Amino acid sequence: MNLSSFGPALFATGLGVLAGALFLLQRLRVRHREVRVPTVLFWREAVEESRARVFVRRFRHPWAYALALAVAGLLWLAAALPRSDGDPGIEHLLVLDGSAAMLRGERFAEAALAVQQRASELPRASTRVVFAGSRPLTLLAPGEELALLRRRLEAVTPEAAPSTLADAVRAAAAVVAPEKRLVAELHGDGALDPEWKQALPADFLVQRVSSPPETLDLAASITAFGISESASGRWDAVDLYLRVEGARSALSMELDGTPLLAEQAASAVGVEYRVRDVAARGETWSARLGDAAVSSDASVSRVLPARAPLRVALSPRVPSSARAALAADSGVALVEESAEVVLRASGEEFGLGLPALEFVEPSEEQAAFTVRGPSSSGAEDEVLALFERLGLREVDAVTLAMVADRPIELRFVEDGAGRSLEVWDSLFSADFDFAQTRAFPLFLAAAVRWLAAAPELRSDLAAGAWIPAEDAPLRAADSSFLDGAGAAFRLPRAGEWTDAHGRLVTAALLDPALLAAASSASYRDDASARSSVTDPMPWIALLALGLLVSEWILFRRGRIP
Amino acid sequence: MAAPRIPVEELCDARFLAALERLRIVARRVAPRGRFAEQRSRDRGSGLEFKDHRAYTSGDDLRTVDWNVYRRLGRMFLRLFEELEDLPLYLLVDVSQSAYFEDPPRARAGLRAALALAAISLSQHDPVGVYPFSDDLRVLVRPASGKSRVLGLAQRMAEIEPAGSTDLARSLATFSALRQREGLVVVVSDFFDPAGLEAVTEALGKLRHRLLLLRLKRAEDAEPTLQGDLRLVDCESGMGEDVSISSSVLTRYRAAYARFEEGLASFALARGAGLLTLDADAEVVPQLERLFAGGTWTA
Questions:
Q1: Which H or E run includes B257?
Q2: Domain ranges across chain A
């Protein structure tokens, strides 16, 4: 048992002072009540006999003193707010959900109150309270005064952020001593992946203990929002996509203030809106819902890419089929000078130093497609990504292999000097029908854009989404900023951000699970999950009351004065 | 605050007197010299009740010869008859402060008991005198007989005012100095004399009269209900005693009180005196009836 209000030393000192004060009171001259009696004859005899036997003249009632000291001691103990230490082998964790799911109604206030209550019931020395907002934040460390929790709770509010309940538990579990086990209580409605607990030790007990909301409203939310490459293949245009789930609500869409008409299609998950071939001129696309479950899902905005045609120079030895395909690409401008990418035959010095697509003689060592460039991840991943990005999935490699009588391979060679792509020149000869396939112009277009390192489109921008390092830092409206320190990072919460290029982006939650995943089935107020810590206060109060009653009875019977 | 007198209505009423009619005090023997009444004297005389025979001697009254005896035995014997004399009743009533300060006062029960005994004696033609006492004794009513004097006695008793503290030894000495004819002395008191029980019994032992002690008590005397830290003030002397009531103190108090009761009872037994304890809170006449078992009490 420990004392919440003050330490053992102060408690012992106080008890000593009480004992001394009561002792002095006992020794004080008694103020007698005057009562007239027919005679004092017998009283005098009785008192004289007792006086002769009293050891200390004025300390006449040791039992009364003991009773008074016991009652005073118990009250002093109650003032010290004793708490049971509970099971010393258990570390308690109370997680208060501060995610977007708690933005609805009074859910957060209710959960905060429940956390406060539970924290007061659990042993202070082994209880940690964590706020799981856009990132986990410890509100009360083990051993800290409970009074601090109330003030710190007043300083936090739920954020338009994905649930970080799992992160909070994982972080706490990481610092639990090996001989102890963790009992975590999750207070809130934030979503949890059913699989996430598998990473924790089996004897760790994690339980959502709050009650489910009376109604899980399904107000409208923008749950998907993104830009994709134009399905028509136009480089200078993009397709827009937006999905609204929940109750029907009016949606308005604008492009730099100009209303935008979209195709609508009802699906199983909501209403999908599409706008095709929107010119990529760096304009701001915004959408607003008339009514949304949480404000963060009421509006979204995104700056479209500004795409100028890619400047490509071709050496005279470039196959004519390639020249024709690039000339037909509206996103490519064939130039003589100031090219960003060149196409040349192997061994030529045309556009030396620029990213180049080279046509090479097939040889034993030479793969059909050889990519050179700096690596940012594992080679295998890089090759797979390139395979997709260069559109090679569309190439009928089997047919090519049969004609060439050797495997058609894609090889990645790490090269810090710059990007280049080598392709067999024979693929463009009459022996192969590669130049006649649908995949050919797609391959060429993808190849020159990869060589030019043209930025990829981010399909959406949502809380919890990964942000590439080059967009860092992201600056929030309150001037705080996020930076992955050279690495990609996750957008912690929804809201308005300004990226490194000065572009204003509005991030939505875009995760229907945030609001809907916390279904009633995921709430189980399991009493066994709660640590049964005995609060000694009621017993102290009962004992003090019992002693007072005893004192009263003894007083009434004349056993003590 | 002066304690009030006991009004005459509280001392005496018709029902009270009627309840006493069947009670009778009989003396074992009274001293000769008194006037004729209903008590047996030590003398043989001209009374009505046969007592004994004795041999005839010259000069005896022939009317007293028992001729039946002479016929059977041939010798002359005289029939002796009991001489009846009166039994003076001296009522010594405690009127100290302690008899008056409670409610109802002990004096009320004491005076009613005294009046009851007076009524019984007067109905037997015995003279009755009343002597209230506290720190000294005074004569309220000199001994006189007459059945019609009961109400007069009651009125005189109602005039009694509480006074002083108890000094039984001095009061009894004063009474003895009055040189009253031998009779029955009834002391009505709580016997709470500051001088202690020993001084009281010593003084009582010096009396040459027959003695009846009527002790006035209350239930609280034996089982006090006092609690806490108290300054107990003697209602007569005003002396205070600081007492913190505890179980041990109460135990010792009860022991002291029991010693007092036993001392008084032992004295009465040794002296051949009557002792009746009257509950001051209860009706007096039913309690007196315990004394008059079968309607008669022999002094």
A1: helix B247-271
A2: 2-80+544-556, 90-216+518-533, 221-307+458-514, 310-451
